[in-house]
Amino acid sequence: METIHRVVVGDARQLSSVDDASVELVVTSPPYPMIEMWDDLFTDLEPSIGDALESGNGRAAFEAMHAQLDQVWDELERVLVDGGIACINVGDATRTLDDSFRVYPNHARILEAFEARGFDPLPDVLWRKPTNSTAKFMGSGTLPPNAYVTLEHEYVLLFRKGGDRRSFEPGADRRYEAAFFWEERNRWFTDVWTDVRGELQALEFDGADAESDRAADLRDRSAAYPLEIPYRLISMYSAYGDTVLDPFWGTGTTTLAAMCAGRDSIGVELEETFLEVFDDRVDGVPALSRSIGRARLDRHQTFVADRRAAGKPPQYDATHYDTSVVTKMERDIRFREVTGVADLEDGAGYRLTHEPLTIDSAE
């Protein structure tokens, strides 16, 4: 099996390189309006945003920033297939402007934007991001009533395009082999993920640009969501052969997850410098993809052993692995590992070769 992963330098407000109804899943994390590190980006896109911030008009700046994101959501409505899923990772913002402190509810504004475009909202997910803990807003310290809650969670907002779910031919291998284990379903499809943690990433820039202002700026905003988040979402909401789009590509974490999950992907990124440092991540994909598949199998083996010890042994045998499973739908699970990585002929991405993950001995 081969997968194709394209990375385009461009503006997500105009996804001209992506055909209509050609994407089954979107997994992305946009720049968060009213987070100070993104002010310059939004102001470059719309100068009136800088004016609003300068004058202390937070409400106007908030709405103008989201107006830029709205243009991306228009494009997602165009490129997603009917029944396709959009997963938007976003956090709310707290900020003081004109001596007034308040929260700016990014998740609520994005929810409204997708509903206005005909998407059906699905139950969302909260995950804790403790890397935010260095920016606590204490207000009056330990005295009531003017202290403020610290924001240490983010949302994964989930939307389906149109009212109908995607359909597959009966017994489709690409769907059944992409199944997840019963215990993974119970852990993943809950509305609070307590087993995922935020992470900070350090990017290395080589050559003359290493000390440039642009490199420093990119390094400052290189924190990405953990690989577990896009990998989990891709496993939950797509099948083998599907294409995953990330219009705010950044450090390429969604593409990395798609590679390990055996899906095609498209990434769109304004800053070409990010693409220059991604090759090192791709080099490690063969080992990473195998380790992820092995870890999932190892966790499942532990689950099976614990279930047997509790007197509730699973009743079915897996087809491709020496293990038991709880439901019939799990029997054909088959992980993929990357065995070859090559650049695309036009240099705008990667072609990966995948083989079924095999286990040398019974576990």
Write up what this structure looks like.
Keywords: DNA-binding, Methyltransferase, Restriction system, S-adenosyl-L-methionine, Transferase. GO terms for molecular function: DNA binding; N-methyltransferase activity; site-specific DNA-methyltransferase (cytosine-N4-specific) activity. InterPro entries: DNA_methylase_N4/N6, MeTrfase_CN4_CS, RM_Methyltransferase, SAM-dependent_MTases_sf. This is Type II methyltransferase. The protein is 33% helix and 24% strand. With 363 residues, the protein is α/β, with parallel strands linked by helices. The relative contact order is 0.16.
* Element-level helix/strand string: EEHHHEEEHEEHHEHHEHEHHHEEEE
- In the predicted model, the low-confidence regions spanning at least 5 consecutive residues are 200-212, 218-223
The number of helical runs is: 12
- Alpha-carbon Rg, integer: 22 Å
Q: Quote the CATH topology.
A: Rossmann fold
- How far is the N terminus from the C terminus? 26 Å
Question: Quick one: overall form?
Answer: globular
Secondary-structure-based class equals alpha/beta
| Corresponding CATH superfamily | Vaccinia Virus protein VP39
Which strand order spans the largest sheet, edge to edge or round the barrel? Answer: 8-6-7-3-2-9-10-1-14-13
In the CATH scheme, the class would be Alpha Beta
Please identify, by name, the CATH architecture.
Answer: 3-Layer(aba) Sandwich
Question: What is the residue-averaged pLDDT?
Answer: 89
Helix-residue proportion:
25-40%
What is the domain total for the residues?
A: 1
What is the tally of beta strands? Answer: 14
Q: Main beta sheet: strand number and arrangement?
A: 10 strands, mixed
Beta content comes to 15-25%
GO biological process, one term: DNA restriction-modification system
Family: Belongs to the N(4)/N(6)-methyltransferase family. N(4) subfamily.
Keywords: DNA-binding, Methyltransferase, Restriction system, S-adenosyl-L-methionine, Transferase
Protein name: Type II methyltransferase
